[in-house]
C-alpha cells in the first residue's frame, strides 16, 4: 500500500514483491537480493522473535532464508541497490510534522540492512520533502522512520516506513532532542516545544 501511495505522489521506490507463502515465491533476475521481514518483532508460537533484513547472494541462500522467515512473517523481496542508506525520523501530531531529523548510515554491519553506525547529516531536501509529503497524506500521528537509499546513479529511493523508534533514537537524543518525552507530550495532548 505504501509503495502504491508513494508512486501516486511521484516518489521513487525500491521495487519489491511481497512473499507470504512458499508456494508463490516470485523469481529473481539477478543477485544479490534483500529479504526484509515486514515486522521486526513477531509473536510466534507464544515467543517473541526478532527479524532483520537479510542479503542473499544466490538461489540456495534465498530459498533457505525464505523457508525460515515466511513461517513467521511475510517478507518483502527486492534487488540489492548499491548506494548510501539514509533515514528521516519525523515526529507528527495529528497530521502535522513537528520535528524532523535525518541521519546517514555510515557502515552497515550486516550487508543489506540491520545494525549500522549512523551520523546526523544534512539530507537532500527532496528526501526530507518526500518523507513529509508521504506522512502528510497518511495524516500520520506519532513517530516514523522513513528509510531511503541514495543510489549510486543519484536516484533517491524510498525503502520503507517504520512506525516506531528505531536504532537512531540514541543519535537523536544525543543531538539534543528527547524523543520519548516528546511522544509522551503528544500522547497527553500537550504542545511540543520548537524543534531542538
Tally the helices: what do you get? 5
The assembly state of the depicted protein chains is single chain
Structural class: alpha+beta
Largest sheet: 5 strands, antiparallel
For the residues shown, what is the average pLDDT?
A: 88
Percent of sequence in beta strands: 35-45%
Shape: globular
Rg calc: 17 Å
Order of helices and strands: HEEEEEHEEEEHEEHH
For the biggest β-sheet, the strand order reads: 9-8-7-10-11
Helix content: 10-25%
What does this 3D model show about the protein?
It is built from five helices and eleven strands. The chain is of the alpha+beta class and 196 residues long. The strands form three sheets. It has a five-stranded antiparallel β-sheet with strand order 9-8-7-10-11. Strands 1-6-2-5 form a four-stranded antiparallel β-sheet, with helices on one face. It has a two-stranded antiparallel ribbon with strand order 3-4. About 3% of the residues have low confidence.
Compact description:
23% of the residues lie in helices and 39% in strands. The chain contains 5 helices and 11 strands, in the order αβββββαββββαββαα.
List strands and helices in order, with pairings.
Blueprint: H1 2-8, E1 16-19, E2 33-37, E3 41-44, E4 47-50, E5 54-56, H2 59-69, E6 75-79, E7 83-93, E8 96-110, E9 113-120, H3 125-137, E10 142-151, E11 156-162, H4 169-174, H5 179-187
Antiparallel strand pairs: 1-6, 2-5, 2-6, 3-4, 7-8, 7-10, 8-9, 10-11
Q: Which features would summarize this protein structure in a list?
A:
single chain; 196 residues; 23% helix; five-stranded antiparallel beta sheet; alpha+beta
Amino acid at each position: 500500500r505504501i509503495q502504491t501511495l508513494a508512486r501516486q505522489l511521484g516518489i521513487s521506490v525500491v521495487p519489491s514483491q511481497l512473499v507470504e507463502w512458499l508456494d508463490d515465491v516470485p523469481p529473481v533476475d539477478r543477485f544479490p537480493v534483500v529479504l526484509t521481514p515486514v515486522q521486526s518483532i513477531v509473536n510466534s508460537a507464544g515467543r517473541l522473535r526478532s527479524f532483520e533484513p537479510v542479503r542473499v547472494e544466490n538461489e540456495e541462500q534465498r530459498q533457505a532464508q525464505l523457508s525460515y522467515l515466511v513461517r513467521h512473517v511475510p517478507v518483502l523481496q527486492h534487488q540489492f541497490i548499491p548506494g548510501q542508506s539514509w533515514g528521516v525520523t519525523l515526529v507528527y501530531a495529528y497530521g502535522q510534522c513537528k520535528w524532523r531529523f535525518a541521519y546517514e548510515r555510515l557502515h552497515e554491519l550486516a550487508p543489506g540492512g540491520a545494525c549500522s553506525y549512523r551520523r546526523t547529516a544534512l539530507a537532500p531536501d527532496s528526501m526530507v520533502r518526500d518523507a513529509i509529503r508521504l506522512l502528510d497524506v497518511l495524516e500520520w500521528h506519532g513517530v516514523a522512520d522513513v528509510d531511503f537509499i541514495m543510489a549510486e546513479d543519484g536516484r533517491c529511493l524510498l525503502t520503507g516506513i517504520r512506525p516506531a523508534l528505531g536504532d537512531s533514537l540514541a543519535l537523536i537524543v544525543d543531538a539534543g532532542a528527547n524523543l520519548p518525552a516528546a511522544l509522551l507530550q503528544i500522547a497527553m495532548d500537550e504542545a511540543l516545544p520548537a524543534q531542538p
